[in-house]
Structure formats: structure tokens, C-alpha cells
């Protein structure tokens, strides 16, 4: 087996050890800069042991997390994800410390995101509704954890596709709600500047950045509402602004479908400004499920394939 140290001149020895632990053989790797640190990709061509058997996995080193307390807290948070096994939440297989300094993760690698789906604009309405429904299911699971977990960085680039499945990933900004303290607020201000695009802010996160109350899990619902608006119409309604500036939305663009009105109404329910009035993932799921059945019936009545 070729070691990671041989591939990268000794750059990732500890990470290579993690791959050895899960039985990787004949791996292929690349590495590149990301917003949070260095990312390297490994292809599992022959994994005989452990939960990652048969998976393509991605490793990421978070080189900005150099403070020991933040680093240890970060790894504890990811222990939650490592224990989850939900079809709409990206699998996390391992975590550790690189070079006695930086935390790293090994997670499932999925190259296709909703960003490409939106640009291609070839998915059916049934598929798009299914994607939103699956992501709501993921948010419902995170919200029901004890303590609840908030993602804080939901955008098309962090929603991945695997066949007809839509999977929430890239948990670099996620946090248990109860552990969001002043240290987290300062760290989030730094991370959000590069990591959270201005087009996917929420009133809850803006308030938090401006020293207000910590957001709850319904902040993620707002972000998903922005993603849904862009998925169905091709346009994100949020006007560009600084990350800590008040949020302004344009009217939602028309959705070209006989179901455009009910889809728009559901998205508007997700984009309610007051988080206390915004509905939870658990409450929104039945409405999107009913809409999915309506879309399937409509497709069949027109003799169209529900899935491309």
C-alpha cells in the first residue's frame, strides 16, 4: 500500500494512519485548499474492514482550529455525527488529530452537489420536492438529538447527491445549540466571513453575529428555504449584503409548474423572519410529502417520468 506520507512528502502522516485503520488499499489521492483548511480525497478501492467498506471517502484537515479547547470541542461535536446513520446525513467514519495540532475528519466523498443541479436545470419537479423532503428529514434528526444540533451552513454546495438521494454534508460550522457560547460566537464570526456566503444568511444568525441570542434549529429551516427557492426558480431571493447586515428578500421568482403556487407557499413558510413563528422540520415534512404525491400523480397523468 502506498502511504499518504509518500504521496504528499510527509504532509499527512496521522491522516494516513486513520486510513490504514479502516483497511484502505490502492488508494488514489488529491489535496486542495478549502475555506477551513486542507482537503484530501481518497478512493476506497479495497476496504476489507470497518464501517467504510466500499465507500469513497474524503478527509479534511481543519488547519484554523489551533486553539486546544476549540479543537477538542470540535472533535466532541463530530462524535455525534459519527454515531448517526441516516440516509440524508453524510457519513462520518473517523476523526483525529494531525501533527498533534489540527483535527481531521474522514467522511463519505460525494462530488455532485445541488449547485450543479441548479445550474443544469434538468431535474423534474418530483425530484426537486424529493430533495427538499430528504433534507428536511435530516434537519428533523439533528433537531431531535439531545442536545439539538444546528448546521449553520446550508447552501447548495453543501447538499450532495447520490443517485436519487440528497444528503446534507460539510458540517464545518455545525454546533450543539447548548454549547454555543461567547467563544463560539467569536469563532463563528471568523469562520462565517469565509465559510457562510452572504446569500444564505438567516435572521437568527445575523442576530447572533450582532451579539444577540443564540440561534435554534429553525435557523436551518430558513437556510433550506433559500436553497429550495433557488432550486425551484433558479434564483436566490436574498439580496447581497454583509454577513451581519439586516436581511432583505426579493419576491420569490415564479416557479414554472402547475404546482408553482403551493410550492411557493411552502417555501414562504420556511422563510418566516421570526424564528418563533417559523415551523419546524417535523411540521413541514407532511406538507412537502403531500406535495410530492401530488407531483407524482401529475407526472403520471401527463405520462412523464417522475425521476429523470
Question: What's the topology here?
Answer:
Blueprint: H1 4-8, H2 13-21, E1 29-33, E2 38-42, E3 57-61, H3 68-83, E4 92-98, E5 102-108, H4 114-120, H5 125-144, E6 149-150, E7 159-162, E8 165-168, E9 175-176, H6 182-195, H7 203-209, H8 218-233, H9 260-270, H10 281-301
Antiparallel strand pairs: 1-2, 2-3, 3-5, 4-5, 6-9, 7-8
Helix pairs in contact: 5-8, 5-10, 8-9, 9-10
Oligomerization state of this entry?
single chain
N→C terminal distance: 40 Å
Question: Class by helix and strand content?
Answer: alpha+beta
Helix and strand pattern: HHEEEHEEHHEEEEHHHHH
Tell me the major beta sheet. 5 strands, antiparallel
Q: Got a strand count?
A: 9
Uncertain residue segments:
1-31, 41-49
Q: What is the 3D shape?
A: globular
Strands in their spatial order, largest beta sheet: 1-2-3-5-4
Radius of gyration: 20 Å
The portion of residues assigned to helices is: 40-55%
- Report the portion of residues in β strands: 5-15%
Q: Provide mean pLDDT, rounded.
A: 80
Tally of separate helices: 10
Descriptive account of the structure:
The chain has 308 residues and is α+β, with helices and mostly antiparallel strands. The protein has helices at 4-8, 13-21, 68-83, 114-120, 125-144, 182-195, 203-209, 218-233, 260-270, 281-301; strands at residues 29-33, 38-42, 57-61, 92-98, 102-108, 149-150, 159-162, 165-168, 175-176. The strands form 3 sheets. It has a 5-stranded antiparallel beta sheet, with helices on both faces. A two-stranded antiparallel ribbon has the order 6-9. A hairpin with a 4-residue loop joins strand 1 (29-33) and strand 2. Helix 5 (125-144) runs antiparallel to helix 8. The longest helix has 21 residues, at 281-301.
Amino acid at each position: 500500500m502506498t502511504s499518504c506520507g509518500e504521496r504528499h512528502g510527509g504532509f499527512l502522516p496521522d491522516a494516513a494512519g486513520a486510513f490504514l485503520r479502516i483497511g484502505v488499499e490502492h488508494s488514489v489521492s488529491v489535496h486542495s485548499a478549502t475555506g477551513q483548511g486542507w482537503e484530501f480525497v481518497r478512493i476506497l478501492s479495497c476496504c476489507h474492514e470497518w464501517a467504510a467498506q466500499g465507500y469513497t471517502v474524503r478527509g479534511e484537515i481543519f488547519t484554523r482550529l489551533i486553539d486546544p479547547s476549540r479543537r477538542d470541542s470540535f472533535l466532541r461535536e463530530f462524535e455525534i455525527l459519527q454515531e448517526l446513520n441516516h440516509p440524508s446525513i453524510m457519513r462520518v467514519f473517523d476523526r483525529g488529530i494531525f501533527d498533534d495540532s489540527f483535527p481531521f475528519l474522514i467522511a463519505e466523498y460525494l462530488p455532485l452537489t445541488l449547485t450543479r443541479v441548479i445550474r443544469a436545470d434538468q431535474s423534474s419537479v418530483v425530484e426537486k420536492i424529493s430533495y427538499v423532503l430528504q433534507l428536511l428529514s435530516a434537519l428533523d434528526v439533528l433537531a431531535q438529538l439531545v442536545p439539538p444540533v444546528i448546521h449553520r451552513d446550508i447552501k447548495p454546495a453543501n447538499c450532495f447527491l447520490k443517485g436519487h438521494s440528497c444528503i446534507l454534508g460539510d458540517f464545518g460550522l455545525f454546533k450543539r445549540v447548548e454549547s454555543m457560547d461567547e467563544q463560539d460566537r467569536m469563532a463563528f464570526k471568523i469562520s462565517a466571513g469565509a465559510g457562510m456566503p452572504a446569500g444564505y444568511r438567516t435572521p437568527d444568525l445575523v442576530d447572533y453575529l450582532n451579539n444577540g441570542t443564540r440561534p435554534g434549529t429553525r435557523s436551518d429551516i430558513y437556510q433550506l428555504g433559500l436553497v429550495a427557492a433557488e432550486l425551484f426558480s433558479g434564483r436566490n431571493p436574498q439580496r447581497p449584503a454583509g454577513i451581519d447586515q439586516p436581511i432583505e428578500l426579493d419576491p420569490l421568482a415564479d416557479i414554472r409548474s402547475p404546482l408553482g403556487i403551493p410550492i411557493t407557499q411552502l417555501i414562504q413558510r420556511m422563510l418566516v423572519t421570526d424564528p418563533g413563528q417559523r415551523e419546524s422540520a417535523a411540521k413541514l415534512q407532511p406538507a412537502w410529502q403531500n406535495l410530492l404525491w401530488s407531483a407524482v400523480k401529475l407526472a403520471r397523468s401527463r405520462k412523464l417520468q417522475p425521476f429523470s
